[in-house]
């Protein structure tokens, strides 16, 4: 697959577009969820939002990881030399750990999350995912 992607302009472009789609699903779901947990959109029912946004974010993450592995396979040595790529991988790992911690502490649907206890994890989540976006974009300009 790596060989095909290395020499196929349209194949690589399709995988890159798939990666962007996964990221859009992930960040597009995580950001409103985190903002809701931080106290925005008080009239909106948290459970209804969580039941839509959590599976959307998880699907986006899986798509982004699968397509990211394919993109990485094209030039692994080159990517591993880029500090911004390594930073992105660490930040993505931190975002995943933060999400897993949030759900482990407060339930899959965040049903046990009291308002006063929800500040630091959603705030960290926003920081991680926006930082991962920035690093991902910078990879195109590095090296």
Please sum up the structure shown.
The chain has 143 residues and is mostly helical. It has helices at 2-7, 9-37, 46-74, 76-80, 83-106, 120-139.
3D architecture notes:
It is built from 6 helices and no strands. It has helices at about 1-5, 10-35, 45-75, 75-80, 85-105, 120-140. It is elongated, with a radius of gyration of 17 Å. The relative contact order is 0.15. The model has no long low-confidence stretch (mean pLDDT about 90).
Short key terms for the protein model shown above:
transmembrane; elongated; DUF2214 domain-containing protein; mainly alpha; membrane; transmembrane helix; 143 residues; single chain; 79% helix
Average pLDDT confidence is 92
Strand content: under 5%
Overall morphology: elongated
Summarize the biggest pleated sheet.
none
The proportion of residues forming helix, as a percent range, comes to over 70%
Counting structural domains, the number is: 1
How are helices and strands ordered from N to C?
Answer: HHHHHH
End-to-end CA span: 24 Å
Number of DSSP-assigned strands: 0
DSSP helical segment count: 6
Instruction: Kindly provide the radius of gyration, computed on alpha-carbon positions and rounded to a whole number of angstroms.
Output: 17 Å
Low-pLDDT runs of 5+ residues are none
The secondary structure category is mainly alpha
